[in-house]
Amino acid sequence: MNQILITKKLYITPELKKKKRIYKINFILSVFFAIVLISLYVYSEYDRNKSEEVSQALLNDVKVEDTTVAKKNTLVVLLDDEEAGLYGNQESEEEVQQSQQIQKTVQTTDSGFRYTTVATVNIPKLNLKYAVLDGETDSEKETEALLKISPTKFWGPEPNEVGNFCIVGHNYRNTKFFSKVPTLVNGDIIELTDLSGKTTKYRVYNKYQVDPTDVSCTTQLTNGNKEVTLITCTDDSKYRVVIKAREVK
Fold first, then answer.
1. How far is CA 226 from CA 9, 91, 159, 190, 208, in A?
2. How far apart are CA 164 and CA 176, in angstroms?
3. What is the dihedral of CA 243, 182, 197, 149, to 10 degrees?
4. What would the pLDDT profile of 227-238 be if each residue is shown by its tens digit?
5. What is the rounded CA–CA span in Å between residue 152 and residue 239?
6. What is the pTM of this model?
7. Cross-strand partners of 167
């Protein structure tokens, strides 16, 4: 019996003890990193849900004005031939007057960026509806701050006017914001409602991916048509998904 005990005791060598210590350290580190990753995931989900709540609150606060009766003494700025070429054919004088009569409410993010809500975008197929924000300076930091709240205007004319109204939104890889926009196909409908209450339907006619630095999809050469472009990230964030839609006439 003593010989057996002595043999077992001698079997636990310093090298084995070292391996056990390393194993314990690795186990503790693995648990620690697992807790950190879980915490980050929980916080990320909380932050996304919070952003969704803010976005829906903005949507509920969108105020639509009645512009059926033109106000007097409205300043009308008509585009010259060069400027008109940027957005295609000119809108009627009445439409220009109506678009300029709308008073936009300026709001401020927690980080101090000023913005207005300019429209709502609705995609029935995806059960998606959000307010579309427009920043004051269009700086990169401002856009990033606004994208955490709601989809944001990236470029183009006023909503539902001749030209290419471009909207960017985050892909959170769930059902929120523009996460499901990449699943749209040709023929799907996008609805854009401006602050006058006018809703225009746009039919998807193209979908493709581009590098993050490629902004050719924002071109305003629409041949006099009204278009909407939706932009979001691919699931791996390496590319941008571009959805092109044209007014249904």
1. 84, 11, 9, 12, 20
2. 24
3. -120
4. 999 999 999 999
5. 18
6. 0.67
7. 153, 230
Sort strands 226-233 and 199-210 into parallel, antiparallel or unpaired.
Answer: unpaired
Model confidence band, residue 89 (pLDDT cutoffs 50, 70, 90):
very low
Choose among 125, 124, 142: nearest CA to 133.
142
Identify residue 51 by its one-letter amino acid code: S
